[in-house]
Backbone:
């Protein structure tokens, strides 16, 4: 609603005026009445050229005071005076007039159509104009010639002026140049509590001795500066309004020639502005002291203001962000689509709220809860965006902690039953999809209740905590260990076969080997019963698997505790054997229970030994003879193969050295190398060390690596084999034909020998397929210039067949079974002096 200011005739008050330019009347009865009254009178308005000149000067003052364009129009919207731009801007000006045909008094009434807004400066400007008008009016109202004194004013003029200023709520008074009150309005007299007669003709010393000095000095200040000045602001009490804010403006009164006539003072109630100021201050305080960060950007996205909390949260000061784009806070965590959605909501709905990850000045990312609102201008276009946000890092952390608590056991911090069920669901799905196997091992501590009963729950907790750490250390990072009850733990792991499950059990059992030292100083020994169920054999869903693992565990308990059982009994037996063997293997290494046998490799034409293959033998006091085909894979999965393999290599080299020292020509000694050995860093250096320790020539050593092992991590294998080849060691591909080497890959390998797997030799010459395969391998070897040796040759027919295919060497029972070194004299080329002394039968004992 346009706010209209006007000066009206005595008896009328400040009122809203009709909005002339927009041709509408304000819905205010009183204002309409006043308008009618004006309608009656404004016909008689006479715009004297001098009056317009006066108005023009007033407008100049107003323009200077407000820094805005202003103009003056009559009630019909006719522009009377004003700047061009002002004419365009201002749409409502009212003019009032005096009485009769010859107006004695013309008062300019300015209507300011500002779309409902009237700034403080503008109001002040109008007031200044009013002050000045009064001075000029006095000059125009029969006071002329006034020369230097107000006292020359005639009674009519004074009465008229009195009437005029009485119509204002403001306190208005005029003092002459000697500081004597010449006129004062009713409003001032009421406020000062003195009748007019007691004020006019008195000085400040007489009227208000306490404040006289300050009044006089502010009068002097206004005269000195020659312009209207605000001299005081104070709180007062009004009978009707209560507490009010007053502001006093004083202006020197000059005649047309610029001579001082006196001082005019106006005191007005500025409570409205003070209230607005307070509101602003309050808003500023709220803005500044808000714990939420506030960022205001203009419509182009440039930051125009931030509050203190913004700095507290982001670490960026005001100077560092003003004028910048909020992108500077970007964490890089959100996709473009995220921001596109946010902008769409801002532009269509005017607001957006959600969570954003941003980056602090120190580089750390943090989550924030943010609400962004668009602020619109008069033209309904966005002027600003206000973002209010809070740092929700702590909230997020608590949420994460709560979630962790919901899915983890508070004592051990291991996943709990709920988490286990969730993970199992996922893992089972994945395993089903990829055709994989899983094992679920339920671990129940034997007689744990006794610990709680005897030592109390605190000690019981200590033991469980330590146990959980040990169990956790024994499982791999891909597996999951959970605590699902007081003394019940569950391991969920991926397995390739049932042996893997047994191995997992054996690793878990190690957690119980050492005693548990508790804070009382006692050392407690614990055992556990474990039940294993495997997927998919023993169940296809988490519940069934858990139930079956539990049943297996119960059986293990019944069998005397400290043992484990598979849900399938047969597997239990196999697993027990495996675990027994595993622990026996540990013992075998320590007690030197292994020994080597050697099997000659012969030239198929001459039937002379070209070398020997070293083969390990193990005779356990309880298990009896165990084939390497059985215990080598167990040693591999138990992590013992490295030690065993190194032992074999050293023994073989030592034996070779002994033969060489005895003057025998032994050709090459072949030693089997298991996959894990080949992939272990430092293997080449270890071989080198053994050669140097034993003094066995590298050229007499042949390392046999199975084809399938060579296919694992081929790049690394090629590198290792190259380095071994560089030492002068011969390299043979064992069990050739059973793996899936591509010819391309084979070409890259630094190998010298192909060993045809005995499965292709077995039914020769009758099996035509095997014959074809053997023939192909031999042909390929020749093409690649590799030596080819056939394994497992048991009959002359096989030997002849292979020889006919072009195979040069063979190994097998036909020529000799693996035998102890001292039994192989017949195959050693004796030194000349000792020739004929050593003999041994071809069918030497294997073991
Ligand atoms: N039926 C039949 N068999 C014959 C004949 N000639 C030799 N053999 C057997 O065939 C196997 C040849 O060894 P391999 O293929 O390397 O196969 C070996 C090798 O893979 C592994 N092995 C043996 N000793 C070691 C060792 O010291 N280290 C490693 N890593 N593995 C070894 O155990 C496997 C089995 O070894 P062994 O039981 O000694 O069995 C040996 C040998 O006794 C024959 O004419 N007919």
Residues:
């Amino acid at each position: 609603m346009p706010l209209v200011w006007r000066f009206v005739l005595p008896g009328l008050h400040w009122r809203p005026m009709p909005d002339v330019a927009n041709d509408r009347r304000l819905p205010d009865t009183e204002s309409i009445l006043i308008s009618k009254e004006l309608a009656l009178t404004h016909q008689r308005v006479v715009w004297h050229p001098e009056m317009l000149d006066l108005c023009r000067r007033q407008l100049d003052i107003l323009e200077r005071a407000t820094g805005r364009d202003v103009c003056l129009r009559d009630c019909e919207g006719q522009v009377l005076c004003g700047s061009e731009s002002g004419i365009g801007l201002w749409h409502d000006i009212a003019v009032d007039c005096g009485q009769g045909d010859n107006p004695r008094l013309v008062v300019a009434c300015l209507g300011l159509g500002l779309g409902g807004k009237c700034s403080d400066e503008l109001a002040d400007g109008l007031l200044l104009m009013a002050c000045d008008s009064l001075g000029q009016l006095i000059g125009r109202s029969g006071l002329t010639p006034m020369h230097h004194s107000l006292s020359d004013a005639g009674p009519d003029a004074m009465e008229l002026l009195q009437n005029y200023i009485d119509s204002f709520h403001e306190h208005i008074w005029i003092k002459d140049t000697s500081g004597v009150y010449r006129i004062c309005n009713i409003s001032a007299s009421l406020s000062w509590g003195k009748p007019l007669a007691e004020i006019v003709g008195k000085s400040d010393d007489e009227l208000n001795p306490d404040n006289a000095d300050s009044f006089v000095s502010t009068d002097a200040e206004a005269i000195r500066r020659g312009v209207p000045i605000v001299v005081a602001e104070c709180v007062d009490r009004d009978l009707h309004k209560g507490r009010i804010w007053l502001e006093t403006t004083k202006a020197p009164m000059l005649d047309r020639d610029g001579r001082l006539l006196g001082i005019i003072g106006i005191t007005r109630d500025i409570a409205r502005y003070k209230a607005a100021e307070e509101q602003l201050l309050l808003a500023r305080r709220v803005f500044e002291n808000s714990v939420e960060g506030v960022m205001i950007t203009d419509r182009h996205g440039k930051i125009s203001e931030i509050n203190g909390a913004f700095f507290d949260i982001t670490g960026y000061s005001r100077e560092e962000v003003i004028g910048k784009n909020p992108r500077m806070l970007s964490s890089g965590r959100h996709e473009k689509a995220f921001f596109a959605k946010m902008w769409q909501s801002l532009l269509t709905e005017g607001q957006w709220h959600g969570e954003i990850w941003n980056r602090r000045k120190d580089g750390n990312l943090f989550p924030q809860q943010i609400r962004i609102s668009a602020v619109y201008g008069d033209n309904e276009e966005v002027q600003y965006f206000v973002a209010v946000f809070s740092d929700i890092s702590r909230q997020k952390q608590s949420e994460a902690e709560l979630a962790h608590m919901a899915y983890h056991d508070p004592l051990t911090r291991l996943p709990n039953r709920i988490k286990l069920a969730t993970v199992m669901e996922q893992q089972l799905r994945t395993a089903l999809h990829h055709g994989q196997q899983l094992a679920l091992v339920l671990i129940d501590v034997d007689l744990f209740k006794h610990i709680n009963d005897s030592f109390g729950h605190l000690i019981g907790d200590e033991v469980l905590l330590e146990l959980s750490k040990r169990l956790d250390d024994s499982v791999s990072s891909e597996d999951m260990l959970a605590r699902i009850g007081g003394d019940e733990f569950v391991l969920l792991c991926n397995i390739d076969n049932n042996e893997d499950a047994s191995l997992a059990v054996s690793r878990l059992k190690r957690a119980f080997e050492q005693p548990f030292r508790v804070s009382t100083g006692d050392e407690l020994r614990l055992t556990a019963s474990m039940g294993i169920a495997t997927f998919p054999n023993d169940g296809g869903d988490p519940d069934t698997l858990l139930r079956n693992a539990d049943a297996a565990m119960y059986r293990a308990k019944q069998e005397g505790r400290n043992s484990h059982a598979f849900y399938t009994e047969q597997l239990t037996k196999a697993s027990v054997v495996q675990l027994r063997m595993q622990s026996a293997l540990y013992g075998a290494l320590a007690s030197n229970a292994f020994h080597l046998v050697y099997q000659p490799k012969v030239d198929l034409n001459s039937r002379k030994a070209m070398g020997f293959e070293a083969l390990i033998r193990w005779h356990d006091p309880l298990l009896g003879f165990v084939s390497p085909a059985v215990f080598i894979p167990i040693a591999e999965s138990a992590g013992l193969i490295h030690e065993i393999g190194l032992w074999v290599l050293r023994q073989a080299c030592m034996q070779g050295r002994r033969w060489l020292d005895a003057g025998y020509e032994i050709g090459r000694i072949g030693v089997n190398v298991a996959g894990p050995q080949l992939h272990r860093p430092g293997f080449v250096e270890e071989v080198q060390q053994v050669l140097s320790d034993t003094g066995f020539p590298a050229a007499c050593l042949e390392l046999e690596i199975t084809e399938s092992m060579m296919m694992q991590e081929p790049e690394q294998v090629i590198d290792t084999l190259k380095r071994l080849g560089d030492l002068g060691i011969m390299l043979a591909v064992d069990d050739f034909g059973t793996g899936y080497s591509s010819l391309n890959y084979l070409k890259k390998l630094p190998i010298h020998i192909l060993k045809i797997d005995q499965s292709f030799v077995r039914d020769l010459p009758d099996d035509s397929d095997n014959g074809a395969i053997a023939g192909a391998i031999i042909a390929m070897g020749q093409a690649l210039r590799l030596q080819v040796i056939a394994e497992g040759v048991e009959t002359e027919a096989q030997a002849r067949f292979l020889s006919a295919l072009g195979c040069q060497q063979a190994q097998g029972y036909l020529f000799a079974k693996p035998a102890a070194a001292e039994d192989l004299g017949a195959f050693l080329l004796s030194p000349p002096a000792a020739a004929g002394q050593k003999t041994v039968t071809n069918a030497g004992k294997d073991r």
